[in-house]
Amino acid sequence: LGDVYETLGRYEEALEMYRRSMVIDPGSPIHPYNLMSAARTLGMHDLADSVLTLCEERFPGALYTTVGEAFNAYYRGDMDAAEVPSRIVVERFPGFPSGNAKRFLASMATNRGHIRHAMALADSSAADFAASGAAFMVATSLSNKTVAAWVGGQAESVLPELDRALQTPEVGAPRWEHAKLGFVALGYAAAGRHAQARDLLPKLDTLALSGQTFPIEDAVRAMIALAEGDAEGTLAHLQRAQARDHGIERVLQRLLTGDAYAALGRWEDAAAAYERLATSYRLNWRDADIWAQLLPLAHERLGETYLVLADTARAIEHFETFAMMWEDADPELQPQV
């Protein structure tokens, strides 16, 4: 029941269910892990860390304990602290866990402006998933690679892989095929290949009828609309997506909402959207992996937005945060820094 509540974005109710699960079944590490998840999503980092301490006492070295340590640090925005346990997962838990850890390591690398390294980690993640029989997860690794390339201004570099992904067999359940096609469509849209992205929308709409998906197709439409100068249309697509998704505002939606408001000259609204992206509060676990990738863009845009709003102090604060994140970025990104 807690998992259902968390999927629906009802984190407070999920938190209570996970608390009760720990009482009913104190010998399982999954219940405190889930409690940490709900707590950090609600910004209750002290609670999440106290539960982690309990896990370290009861389940030292267990997968859920190690992953919990990584996620607690990640949601606090401490990428250095998150990297250490993530690498331990790669070393000690091969296969599916290693593949997931590498996805988050790719996100952290993007956060530092290490785009080439992030893309290599995403490739390694995909290989782990394929080798462990989790072909349905390979597309999630491709999404990390696509976002890394987009953030680094290299969106076209992944086009051959997007093309190849369309040639792979269907991956099973409709929600996984929907995710694969959705990530490919997002990649096409990010690279300016709007016609190719649009070609995938009818199939995405059909797969969405299964009721087991989250609305990637609306994000694709929003991205295309924004690129074509229709900021109002972008907001309409994003609002539709959030309504379909139980009120959850996904990470990419926060960025695109800010960009749409900025295009409309609604700077206060743009700042509010970018501020939501700059925090992990109510960050749903399903797309948490790309949050760190988009954080540099959030701070860069906040700096630009607060300059327009004549709030120089806050602009400097966010520009400094952006510059610190990317101080060791790839050489081609240094002019941007």
Features of the shown structure:
72% helix; globular; mainly alpha; 18 helices; 337 residues
Order of helices and strands: HHHHHHHHHHHHHHHHHH
Strand composition percent: under 5%
**Helix count, per DSSP?**
18
Q: What value does the Rg take, in angstroms?
A: 19 Å
SS-based class: mainly alpha
Largest sheet, in brief, is: none
Shape: globular
- How many individual β-strands? 0
Summarize the amount of helix as a percent range.
over 70%
Enumerate the spans where pLDDT stays under 50 for 5 or more consecutive residues. none
Quote the distance from N terminus to C terminus: 45 Å
Mean pLDDT: 96
Q: How would you summarize this macromolecular structure in one to three sentences?
A:
The chain has 18 helices and no strands. With about 325 residues, it is an all-alpha fold. The model has no long low-confidence stretch (mean pLDDT about 95).
Characterise the protein shown here.
The chain starts with a helix and ends in a 12-residue tail after the last helix. It contains 18 helices and no strands. Helix 7 packs parallel to helix 9. 50% of the residues are buried. The protein has 337 residues and is mostly helical.
Which helices and strands, and how do they pair?
Layout (H helix, E strand, L loop, with lengths): L1 H6 L3 H14 L5 H12 L3 H14 L4 H14 L2 H14 L3 H16 L3 H17 L6 H14 L7 H9 L6 H17 L3 H15 L7 H12 L3 H14 L6 H13 L3 H11 L13 H18 L3 H14 L12
